[in-house]
Specification:
This protein has 305 residues and is α/β, with parallel strands linked by helices. The protein is built from eleven helices and eight strands.
Length: 305
Amino acid sequence: MFTISDQRTLPSQNRLPAWFKQPLPDPVKIHFLKTMFRSSNLHTVCESARCPNMGQCWGAGVATFMVLGDICTRACRFCAVPAGRPRDLDVREPENVAMTVQKMNLRYVVLTSVARDDLPDEGAKHFAETIQAVRRRSPKTKIEVLIPDFSAKSQSLKTVVAARPEVISHNMETVARLSAKVRPQASYLRSLEVLRRFKEFDAAIFTKSSLMVGLGETHEEILQVMADLRRVQCDILTIGQYLAPTRDKRHLRVERFYTPEEFESLAQHGRQMGFKHIMSGPLVRSSYIAEEGYKECMEGVANGE
């Protein structure tokens, strides 16, 4: 089986490999969606995180909404979202998200957020209110939430679980050895505990996590994260290439670029480990084509798996 090489795939960080090329998006549709989001005072993680798939997803009329504002209380070294002192919560945001989901006639929506360590529940109630608002306006829309760790507060986690999204996601982001460097205000073990508690509180909800590669991890360390995720019964995993969002010193440099063949090798390992769905590729991100993961999990349930 193909395994990850110890050699860097690309010596220069100033240019990307050929497999990162994508077709130009439809500028008319992009402008229409930007106008819609701005008119409702909504934020998308697509823009805030400078996602490389924004053109493709927006061209298909798909977006991931970022609630709880656009300023994060944490300063992770892989993330482009501004860090600092957040503004007060926008109490109209849950209803504005719901109206936009209804207007876009979305079958599937992903809700994520900045970290809000300044709030007693770290934003859990706001997540639940947004889920409930979407349910009222678009009862057939399936909902996935990608949450911060809420400092592993049981009541906060229970609040989101009780709102019954179809998928609850929390990202590991990197391997155990690099976690403190990549996410200095988070914890590898705490993230695993968050994912474990999701299943403890409601075993029927599908759980999901995401991993970046290219930060200096080894092949064995990647497989260990995957094994740790299966140990806490994580159902869905996405693996993608880390790209430094800026040249700012806060952001880590890319140590190497993985090839499409290496990503496929990791996907094969994941299937053998028992993930219900795994998506692995250079441009894969946690909410990229998220509906596919949910559909595959539901097919497994229907087949008694």
